[in-house]
């Protein structure tokens, strides 16, 4: 492998044009080995992508074997055994809840497809005015134009505001830590949010709204923010009242990340459409999916009998082979149970080690999907000056300490607030959790003296 000596004159467009990324020499298990000789524990799976570790020989063999069988066919004319097998594996336990799955590459593609299938669902019924959507202010649904229009992520949207559609509307996010009033119960807060959604539907017109989009557990925008108890049940009731599809974005929080394949399984509802990605392919090949219930599939089947949305690399055989291998390892090694057990342990360990740190405001999450929000003052929940980028500074400290975590900013309103996200591989051990939490705590404490009141 050629050594990269200098990135200052690189022709590759990196995420930043000011800072050079670290060069990864190789990765194995839960560790990333940098070209500078540093060994880093991958505590975030990149962006919550890694599920069965890096460099898993079984997955590599499965993809390699698929290469020698068939690497590509066009889905207009053909299907492949691996695509059919992956669909059957994923839907095996969801009879009566999910009817079909549609495979694409990125999460952005999956959410674009979810928008299209929702519009086509109503189009096939002659309800051609139902082309608009409602999502939440603090949210992220992808880099393509429909996904960006759905997203409430202020800084990611800002350069493209003149491109995003005005057919996408926003209601408040479900953030009990920040926005539940002191004299308000959780139930009353949920009712207020449901009433807000109903008011928005009535404002735009029920005949115009096709779907309501929400991340079951919000990912990078707010840092593993879970919904208040009863929230999705109340939201679903409003959606059903006005013939609006409920669409859950589980690109980041799904595919087993919270201990069940779908995060919504731990809530009291079943959505009409769900998107999944990231950990679905475990990082071995781009793979995302759109899951549709029987109601949606029946309307398409009884109408045009097709989904008017195709991709060149739809149901890509190499990605499907990777997805099958990842799912087989998860099932064989009972890794979803490990996600539950180690996730609960991780949450308890984070609370124990971080609760007394002055700049730690809130610790939240589920399974192996946890976030820590930082504040200047615990009692007022005042944010640290956003110009400091405290989350990124803590990420830097963590890297120096041998740990990779995922930073975020704009946590509160898109402009202020900072957090970090922790999302390790599903096969993490208790000893690794202990070391990881100690590294997180040390990295935050280094910042506490400088930025706490």
Automatic annotation (TrEMBL):
Does the record carry Transferase as a key word?
no
Record GO terms (molecular function):
N2-acetyl-L-ornithine:2-oxoglutarate 5-aminotransferase activity; pyridoxal phosphate binding
Identify this protein by name. Acetylornithine aminotransferase, mitochondrial
Q: Which InterPro entries match?
A: Aminotrans_3, PyrdxlP-dep_Trfase, PyrdxlP-dep_Trfase_major, PyrdxlP-dep_Trfase_small
Recorded source organism is Debaryomyces hansenii (strain ATCC 36239 / CBS 767 / BCRC 21394 / JCM 1990 / NBRC 0083 / IGC 2968)
What pathway, per the record? Amino-acid biosynthesis; L-arginine biosynthesis; N(2)-acetyl-L-ornithine from L-glutamate: step 4/4
* Requisite cofactors: pyridoxal 5'-phosphate
Signal sequence extent: none
Q: Which PANTHER family match?
A: AMINOTRANSFERASE (PTHR43094), AMINOTRANSFERASE CLASS-III (PTHR43094:SF1)
UniProt keyword annotations, A-Z: Pyridoxal phosphate
Q: Enumerate the Pfam families for this protein.
A: Aminotran_3
Query: Which family is this protein grouped under?
Result: Belongs to the class-III pyridoxal-phosphate-dependent aminotransferase family.
Task: Please indicate if the UniProt record lists Chloroplast as a keyword.
Answer: no
Tell me its EC number(s), please: 2.6.1.11
- The superkingdom listed in its UniProt entry is Eukaryota
Mind telling me which GO cellular component terms the entry cites? cytosol
């Amino acid at each position: 492998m050629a050594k990269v000596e200098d990135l200052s004159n690189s022709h590759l467009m990196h995420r930043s044009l000011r800072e050079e990324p670290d060069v990864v020499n190789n990765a194995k298990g839960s560790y990333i080995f940098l070209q500078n000789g540093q060994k880093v524990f991958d505590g975030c799976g990149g962006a919550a992508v890694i599920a069965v570790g890096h460099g898993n020989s079984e997955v590599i063999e499965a993809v390699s074997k698929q290469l020698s069988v068939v690497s590509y066919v066009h889905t207009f004319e053909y299907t492949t055994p691996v695509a059919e097998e992956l669909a059957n594996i994923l839907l095996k336990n969801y009879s009566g809840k999910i009817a079909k799955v549609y495979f694409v590459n990125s999460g952005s593609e999956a959410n674009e497809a979810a928008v299209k299938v929702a519009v086509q669902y109503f189009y096939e019924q002659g309800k051609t005015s139902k082309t608009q959507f409602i999502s939440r202010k603090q949210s992220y649904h992808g880099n393509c134009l429909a996904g960006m229009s759905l997203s409430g992520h202020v800084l990611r949207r800002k350069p493209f505001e003149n491109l995003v559609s005005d057919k996408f509307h926003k209601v408040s996010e479900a953030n009990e830590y920040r926005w539940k009033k002191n004299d308000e119960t959780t139930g009353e807060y949920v009712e207020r949010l449901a009433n807000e959604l109903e008011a928005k539907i009535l404002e735009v017109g029920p005949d115009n709204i096709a779907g309501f989009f929400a991340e079951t557990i919000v990912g990078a925008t707010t840092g593993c923010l879970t919904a208040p108890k009863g929230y999705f049940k109340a939201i679903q009731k409003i959606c059903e009242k006005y013939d609006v599809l409920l669409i859950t974005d589980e690109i980041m929080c799904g595919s087993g990340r919270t201990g069940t394949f779908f995060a919504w399984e731990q809530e009291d509802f079943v959505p009409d459409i769900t998107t999944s990605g990231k950990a679905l392919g475990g990082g071995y090949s781009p793979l995302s999916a759109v899951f549709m219930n029987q109601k949606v599939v029946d309307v398409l089947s009884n109408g045009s009998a097709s989904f008017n949305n195709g991709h060149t690399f739809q149901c890509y055989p190499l990605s499907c082979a990777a997805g099958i291998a990842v799912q087989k390892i998860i099932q064989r090694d009972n890794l979803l149970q490990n996600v539950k057990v180690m996730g609960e342990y991780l949450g308890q360990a984070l609370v124990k080690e971080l609760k007394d740190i002055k700049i730690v405001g809130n610790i939240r999450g589920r399974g192996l999907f946890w976030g820590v929000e930082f504040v200047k003052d615990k009692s007022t929940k005042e944010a640290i000056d956003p110009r400091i980028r405290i989350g990124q500074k803590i990420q830097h400290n963590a890297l120096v300490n041998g740990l990779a975590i995922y930073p975020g900013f704009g946590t509160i309103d898109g402009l202020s607030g900072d957090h970090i996200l922790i999302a390790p591989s599903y096969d993490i051990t208790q000893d690794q959790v202990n070391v990881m939490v100690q590294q997180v705590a040390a990295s935050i404490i280094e910042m506490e003296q400088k930025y706490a009141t």
